[in-house]
Amino acid sequence: MAKVFGKTVAESAAETVEVVLPNDGNPLGNLLGGKVMHLIDIAGAICAQRHSRSQVVTVAVDNLDFLYPIKVGEHVALRAHMTRAFRTSMEVEVRVYRDDYLTGERQQTSSAFVTYVALDPQGKPQMVPPLIVKTKEEKRRFREALGRRRQRLALAAQAHRRYFEKA
If we measure between CA atoms, which residue out of 115, 70, 118 comes closest to residue 93? Predict the structure, then answer.
């Protein structure tokens, strides 16, 4: 078996920027929430793919809040970074920003934690490299990710039990 080397948070980080076009807006002239969710999933997947060097699938999204609207014509910027790598899964934090290119103002509008699983060429889960955390902030996020994972797994087990009790 080949030796697995870790990767730092910076090695996998991803940032994307798009112009909010009218076809992505709602009747109020704001970016559609579903489009924000789509962009979060793409930015997070790019980060997870960079870390694992494999295809990934989305398995969970934690708590997405929309704090401020992003207007048609503004830029939407997304920053994705790894918070923790487990055996075959990875948690990625994606932050969304409203970027007013006329004033230079950047304001965070949402964020989410997204969990991905790395897949081998046959579509089966595969091991991922460990995450190397260096800064105090990265170490804090790393610790907190374990608590979120435990909560996700407990909720999934509870839903699984309810499903099979009804069957």
Answer: 115
pTM: 0.90
Pick the CATH number of 7-166 from 3.90.230.10, 3.40.50.300, 3.10.129.10, 3.40.50.1820: 3.10.129.10
Residues 138, 136: Cα–Cα separation, whole Å: 6
What number of CA atoms fall less than 13 Å from residue 161's CA on the CB side? Answer: 6
pLDDT tens sequence for the chain (167 residues): 455 589 999 999 999 999 999 999 999 999 999 999 999 999 999 999 999 999 999 999 988 989 999 999 999 999 999 999 999 999 999 999 999 888 999 999 999 999 999 999 999 999 999 999 999 999 999 999 999 999 988 888 888 787 777 76
Angle at the Cα of 46 from the Cα atoms of 41 and 49, rounded to 5 degrees: 120
Amino acid at residue number 161: R
Region for 142 from its dihedrals, namely left if φ exceeds 0, alpha if ψ lies in -120 to 50, beta otherwise: alpha
